[in-house]
Amino acid sequence: MSDLTDGYLTLNVGGFHYKVKRAMLLKFPGSLFEKMLNSEWKEASDAVVEIHRDGELFKYVYDLMYYGTIPRNGIGMSLVGDT
Question: Which superfamily, per CATH, for 8-67?
Answer without folding.
Answer: Potassium Channel Kv1.1; Chain A (3.30.710.10)
